[in-house]
Amino acid sequence: MERNLIGIRHLERDDIEDLIALSADFKLRVLEDRPLPVLSKKVVGMLFFENSTRTRVSFEQAAHYLGLKTANFTAGSSSMSKGETLKDTILTLRYERLNALVIRHRLSGAPSLAARHFGGPVVNAGDGQHEHPTQALGDALTILERKGSIEGLRVAIVGDVEHSRVARSNAWLLSKLGAEVRFVGPRTLIPPHAMMLPGKVFYDLATGIEGADVIITLRLQKERMAEGLLSSIGEYAAMYQVNRETMRFASPSVLVMHPGPLNRGVEVDDVAADGERSAITSQIENGIFVRMAAFAWTFGEDATAKAKPLSKKA
Ligand code: NCD
C-alpha cells in the first residue's frame, strides 16, 4: 500500500518506530555493502521550491542507493515562473507519470495539497513553519545510537522555535517516544500557540537546559523574521548561545544537535558544534538512511518487507 509522509504529528508510535528501525537497517546494509531493495523502475520528482543543501543531497543519495531515478524541479526554471499554480504543476507531474514526489515549499500545507492531486506517495521535505518529518526521524536515529533509548530523556529545543518546522516535528516525535520536551528561547521567538505543542516553555537558557540529555539548537531564521523580533544578534548570542560555558548547565553527557545550516558564533560556538558532545555530523549522515526508509515506507509493503528481516522488530 502506498502512503504519504507529510508530518509526524499524525503518525502512530508504531509507524515512527518502523521508520526508525528501517533507517537503522538501511544504514547497516549500506555500511556493510549488503543488498538493498531495488526500486529501479520508479522515478521521483524532487520539488525544492526553497533552498536546501543537506536535505536535497540526502534525498538524492537515498534515491541513488535504492536505484530510483530522480527528476529535478525548481520553481524558477519551470512553468510556475509563467504563473502556473502549484495544483496544476502537481497534476502535470502526475500525468508525466512520475511515481513519487519529494516536496519542500515555503508554505505550510503545500505537501498536503500536492498529496491530494498527485497519484502516488508524497514526502514532505519541509513546509513553511509546519513540519520536517525526515529531519526528526534522522535526529531520533542519532539520539538512539548515542543514548540507547529516547524514553525518559530530557530534550531542550533551543532558539528560533517560532519559525522552525524542525522544532515542531522533533517535539511531536520525541514526546510520542516518551521524552520530556522543552522549548527554550526569547518570547519573540516562541510561538504564541506553544501551549498547543507537546513541550514546556522556558525563557531562560540556564533553567531550560538544566540537566538536559540532548540540546537541539536551531538556526535564527532571519529570512522568515519580521523586523524587530530581536534587538540584536549579539544580544541573542549573549543570552541563548549554547557554548563551552552554557553547556555546563546540561547533563555532563549532553548531546548537542543542530539541523543545519549553522550560524556559527550565534546559536552555537565552535566547542558546542565541533566538540566531542556534538552529534551534528551524525545527523547529516543519518539523513541519508532515514530518507531511504521514507522512500521504502511510502512506496509500500513490498519494499519495506524486503528490508524488514534485518530490522530490530523482525
Ligand atoms: C532546516 C530547514 O530547512 O527546515 N534545515 C534542514 O532541513 N536541515 C532548518 C533551517 O533552515 O534552519
Beta-strand residue fraction = 5-15%
Spatial ordering of strands, largest sheet: 7-6-5-8-9
Please identify the top-level CATH class of the largest domain. Answer: Alpha Beta
Number of domains: 2
Beta strands, count:
9
Based on Cα principal axes, name the global outline: globular
Bound molecules: N-carbamoyl-L-aspartate
CATH architecture of the largest domain: 3-Layer(aba) Sandwich
State Rg: 19 Å
Key attributes of the depicted protein:
Rossmann fold; 11 helices; 314 residues; 5-stranded parallel sheet; disordered C terminus; 4-stranded parallel sheet; binds N-carbamoyl-L-aspartate; alpha/beta
Structure description:
- The protein is of the alpha/beta class and 314 residues long.
- Helices cover 38% and strands 14% of the residues.
- It is built from eleven helices and nine strands.
- The longest helix has 20 residues, at 280-299.
- Bound molecules: N-carbamoyl-L-aspartate.
- N-carbamoyl-L-aspartate (NCD) binds at residues 54-55, 126, 132, 135, 165-166, 219, 221, 259-260.
